[in-house]
Known about the structure:
Helix content is 65%, strand content 11%.
Amino acid sequence: MRWRQLADVVLVSWLLAAALLLAGTDVAAATTGVPIDAAGWALILALHLPLYVRTWFPLPILLAVATAATVYLTLGYYHSVVTFAVALAVFTVAETRPRRTSVPGALLGWAVLLYAQRALDGDERLFGSVVVTFILLVAWGFGDNWRQLRERGRRLAYLTEQLRREQQERAHQAVSQEQRRIARELHDVVAHHMSVISVQAGLGRYVLDADPQTARTALDVIAGTAHEALSEMRRLLAVLRVSSVEAGEPAQFDAAPGLDRLPHLLDRVRAAGATVTSHTEGEPVTLPPGLALCVYRVVQESLTNVLKHAVPPEAAVSLTWRAQSLEVRVTDRGAPRRPESPSDVVRHGLIGMRERARIYGGTLSAGPRPQGGFEVRLTLPIGEHGDG
């Protein structure tokens, strides 16, 4: 049995015992001139026994108590016996029901207790009316405040649960976004570096006997590309070491590639057998790491597609700096190796580039050029970062 139920039983039992004792006193009989009899005892029980289940049926219990009290008072028994039973019934209605229900219930209880004062005369009746009015107001006020506190507690618990769910959802979204970001990074790293390695490995095998020097150069490119790929893979894996960082261990990984790495990227693509030219227009400015990484990855993905799909692999990279934007164009003049629709890998790469651009408020278009070849155009807003 819960403590609240036990407290209710104790309270009602105490009220019943007090009422029985009070009704049997000589003062009660002398005040009303009507001694207590079997009917009176039965009505006292009828007044109090329903209160044991008052929290289950608040309104019916109030009506039952009010009815029993009215009959008890009409028969002329001692009036003070009914006061606290009626007050407790009113408290219960106020505690469990809204004001549109509890206020009429309180008025009903008040009317019953005022009716109880009819046995008194003059100043005693006035004083008794004031006392029972005060008792009813206190009972109703405590019940109504208790109800409001409980409702606030429920609302607070609901809002807390909603906040917990929203925080959990935001955490899931953050994890999902991080997974997509890492997937893009892995795609860019693997697709580009493996394409270079594949091209150089094929070249080295082809000229191994006829031109050992070219074969050694190809192996050097493969080694350098593999080393760079491993470095970037380590950086990505370091990002995943969340538990180590939370445990207080420093996260050690290289900075993400940016515009300063573009010349090295172009050299590596040239070493893989592609012809690449570059052009910069306007005054370059320093970009935030995220924007710089976006530019680098778009150029990297575009040149990787040139290596894999364009014949001959020829490309031009141009960066146009404006006051509020940066435009990056990667064009090739070769025909596609296969005229059919792009593979899933290429399509995934284009989707990844567009998503990168969208994250930073930019746009990316990719498609064949009227004069032949293919063009990828990235436009990024640089705002206060661009002043040239």
